[in-house]
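SAMPLE LOG
Freezer: B-3
Tube label: C17
Construct: single chain, 337 aa
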Amino acid sequence: MQAVEKMTMTDHDNIDYQNGLQVLRDEIAGLEAMAAALDGQFISAVEAIDEMRGRRSGRLIIAGIGKSGHVGRKMAATMASTGTPSYYVHPGEASHGDLGMVTENDVVLMLSNSGENPELSDLIHYTRRFGITLIAMTSNPESSLAQHADIQLVYPKVQEACPNNMAPTTSTTMMMALGDALAVALLKRSGLTKEQFKVFHPGGKLGKQLLRVEDLMFKGDDLPILSPDVTMDQAIITMTAKNLGSVLCVDASGKLLGILTDGDLKRHMAPDLLTRAVGDLISPTPKSIRSNALAAEAMDIMLNKQNSVITSLVVKDADDKLVGLIRLQECLQAGLA
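STRUCTURE (predicted):
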């Protein structure tokens, strides 16, 4: 492989590098200041939202204007994907009819760095009129938003990474991180499992990683199941008809006795093969897995068998009864590689 030539940094490049590095350091400093200032109001916010989740129709309503609105949309998406029913309401649209989307069972989380945006006033007044819990996220504890809120998530007022101290940079990073902190605290409080998390992420890479064996396995009439006394001529017919590369041998109770693969056929090739009983040729201890295991785990077992690769795994229950068969081919087609 040809060596990659090291790039020479010009004076202009160096200035850009230093500017970028300074932005990151400014935002890290903001996050560290916010972490140091975190107080009991954060716990109150988590408890209020968690109590809301206990009400059947309760939702977390997130609102903000400008850059805070963009952060709010991301925050609502994160909350919804981690088990907290949530959606974003634009304060301007709320003033023109969308207030009807907010109910007394909800909690409103309003984002504003200054806490003085006039567009927020109607939604603030609505929460006060109908006794809806209002959580403020702001850097200004003396603002109208903070003063009217039931819970104040106040983060330190720090210098924006923008050299003019105008473009929301450090402040929006702090908002985003504080929203993530709320979401994860709520996730841990509810004990959301990987399997439950998958319900909110059925697509994409994460959804594929959380597929379970039962989602990809063959079962029921699709399985090539035979009793041990069936002769090999019938076994070959069954193996060909089901087209899974193997037959599964079970006893009368459904307990797995073993597996016979097309590779076994080659190894046992002899003049009397067709008249022999399946039970005499099966591998009695095939690799197996439970149906509730992650499909990625099944693929790992198949690919990492010592000195070889196997193409299928038997799926058994706790009583060693056959429930299915999962193949490497289906795992790869599902995008698990």
